[in-house]
Fold this protein.
Amino acid sequence: MSAFLAALLQYKFLQNAVLAGALASLACGVTGVYVVVKRITFISGGIAHAVLGGIGVAYYLGQDPLLGAVFTALGFAVLLGLTNLTARQHEDTIIGALWAVGMAVGIIFMALTPGYSVDLMSFLFGNILMVTEPVLWTLFSLDLIILLVVAVFYRQFLLVCYDEEYARLRGLPVKALSILLLALIALTVVILIKVVGLVMVIALLTLPAAVSGLFTHNLHRMMALATGLSFLFILGGLICSYQLNLPSGALIVVIAGIGYLAVLAWQRFFSLAWRRKKTGQKLFP
Amino acid sequence: MRQVGKAIEVCRVSFAYTDRLILEEINLTVEAGAFLVVVGPNGGGKTTLLRLLMGSLAPVRGEIKIFGQPPRKTRRLIGYVPQQTALDRDFPVSVLEVVLMGRLTPNSLFPRYRREDYTAAYAAMRAVGVDGLAEARFGDLSGGQKQRTLIARALAGEPKLLLLDEPTANVDPVAAAEIYQLLARLNRAVTIVLVSHDLEYVTAHRRQVVYLNHRLSLAYPGGRSPDSPADRPGREMTGVRGEH
């Protein structure tokens, strides 16, 4: 632990990693809560994986892969938002197809580009230790967009997630709001790809929000708590990665998973004990 | 507060989902200030009729007017109380937040609710008797309290027409009786259309009733089954027998 602190003060790349972790926590804490309460994990996973297509094409064209990721993520968000609302019965199939075909396209274009292999691994499994300053600025501006949109449309998102039919009756543009929400999730996915890689994005998107949902029943408190928790998970993963010399992305996800299971087990034990006490009181007053 | 004129005019309306015909040749007129109960079997099209009245579905044929205008234009005048089972029990939302949803309008881009929104929400919660539960989580409420909260949400929008989908399903008999009392009180100010399978209430309180099973037939309160031969088709309704 102290070795990590000393290294943190010394090395710029570690400072960047912690900063990237903080920026990523903010994004996944806020939008992750929507993923969990609206139960759209599968859509989010689909977007995360399909983004590889955009990254591959950007590589092939010699463009910034992060930019390619942003555009494909947004494109898929709009596409899935439209199919979700029009062809409800085929939703699963469409997401599954996008998921796999997107990845396949990415791999083909990367194969067509000479010298791709190291970067492919870093996009699949993330490498928070390679975050540079310009990337930090990109993450920062994506965060800003996400927070601003959620601040303005918080009430609308709440109603659309909770009761679509009532939202329609109130005259809200349900379709546009749903697509906007998916777009925010897409941007979050892009940020998280830098941290844990697209294969494991879904863990940071759902686990911190799920844990916070066990503690509070209020959407914005859930967001604050989820942000804090994901920062803890990322920091924990970084420290372990530094000490054990193992890949950071995988450790972050494992720590998040352990945290979720631990809280679940603790809550279950606690609520059982509490219930027993309560029924005991009812039976023997 | 008594309203005059026609709240609902449904003229020869048919509706189908892709290949399944749900509603056929529905004719229905509801006077402003009335209290109409729609009964009928599951899958008979009761909820679909409510959705048509709200304008969230459009009829395949025929015309619907709410207070003399097409439903899309009069959404603001309608309060809707959905079946509580349609809502996610685990959703993290408080009673106050649910009621405030009734105040949201498409052009409220200012990202906070205003003071008058809170005033209206608390007034609605007082009217249905859930003002003490403002901070409680909606999912933790009893069936009756949930139903009252959803009624409060509909009232918060200051509607002239209240549509309710099975308001006494998942509610114990005492709470159901209280909800009916509440609705009778609310009926002094708003027109009410209620979808229900609760024939006992209908016959006990002599409400105006129609029977819906793909088609609409007139039914009279007073203990007779809606299918009994004594039913005569009214002028506005298409009589159907031997259909169900």
